[in-house]
Amino acid sequence: MNPFAKSYQSNNSDRELIQQILEGKKSSLNSLIERHQPYIYNIAWKMIGDPIQAEDLTQEALIKIISNLSSFKGESAFRTWAYRIVKNQFLNDLKKPSNVFMSHFEDLGNALDNATSTDLTEDEKNEREEVIREVRLQCLSGMLLCLTKEQRLIYIIGDIFAADHTIGSEIMEISKDNFRMKLSKARKDLYNFMQNKCGLVDKSNPCRCHKKVTFATQNGIVNAKNLLFNKKEFSTFKAQLESDANYLVDESEVKYSELHKEHSYKTTFEKKSFLMSIINDPDWQSKLYLN
Q1: Residue 72 is assigned to a structural domain of this protein
Q2: How many domains does the chain have?
C-alpha cells in the first residue's frame, strides 16, 4: 500500500511489527522492510538517476530507520517518522546524480537541440519500440535531475506518488502552504521546459524521442542491449499507485505529471543486498535481540 496515500491504513500494523521487532522477532523486521523498501528505493532511483547508487542510498536509509526503531514513540504516524529519516538521508547525501544529460534545464535543452535528429520509418519505430521508450524515460529522468534536490524530492512525493499536502508537509517538515508553494515551483520549472521543448507535451515542438534514438545509441547514451529503465520485470508508478480523488492539478500539469508516472518502478529486489545483509548481520541481531 502506498504510504503517501491519504487512505493509508498500515499505521497500526506498522506499530505492531515494530513492537514485535523490539521483542526480537526477526520475521517482523523482514515484513517491515519488505513493506517500505520498494517506495524508498524508487524515490532513491528518481532522486539519483542510477539504480546501483539507489540501492546504496536505500540501504543506508533502511539501516538508519532500523537502528532508530527504539526511539519511535508513536507520537506521529510511522510513515511520517520513517520517511523524515529518508528525506534527511536523501537530501544530505553527497552522491552525484548519474545524469547523462545535464544538471540545468538550459544545458539540457541545448544538449537535446545539438543531438542529431534522425527520422525512422514506421517499421523501424516498431522494431526499436523498447529503445525509443528507453530514450523517453532517460530524458524524463534527466529533466528531474535538473531540479534542485529539495524540488526533486517534493515533486516525487507530491506529484509522482500523489501525496496529500498534509502528508507531504509532515514528511518534509514544512508548512502545508510552503509545501504547496515549493511543489508548484517544481511543477512550473518542469512545465516551462517541457512545454517549450518536448514533443510529447506540445506537438509543435521538434524534439521527438524516436528521432534521438540513433544519436543516443551511437553515442553511448543508451545501451540497447542493457536497458536501464525499460525492462520487462519493471512496472510503472501509474500501475503501482492508486489514484487519490483529492489529488487535483490543472489540465496542463496533468499531462506531464502522467508522463513521469509512466517511469519505471522496480518491484522485486535481491534480498541479499537489502534484507538479509541486515537481518543476518550478527551486530544487528545483537542490537535488536533478534531470535
Answers
A1: yes
A2: 1
All three cell numbers of 146, joined, read 535538473
What separation in angstroms does the CA of 284 have from each of 24, 47, 255, 279? 11, 28, 46, 7
Place of cell 508516472: 261
Return left, alpha or beta for 261; rule: phi > 0 is left, psi -120 to 50 is alpha, else beta: alpha
- What pTM, to 2 d.p., does this model score? 0.84
Residue matched to cell numbers 539507489: 54
Cα distances (Å, whole numbers) of residue 236 to 100, 142, 164: 22, 17, 20
pLDDT along the chain (291 residues), means of 10: 73 84 85 89 89 87 89 86 94 70 83 92 93 90 92 93 90 95 93 89 88 92 84 78 46 59 74 60 64 53
How far is Cα 91 from Cα 149, in angstroms, rounded to an integer?
6
In a domain, 4, yes or no: no
175 within a domain of the structure (yes/no): yes
Q: Which domain holds residue 91?
A: 11-288
Residue 70: DSSP 8-state:
G
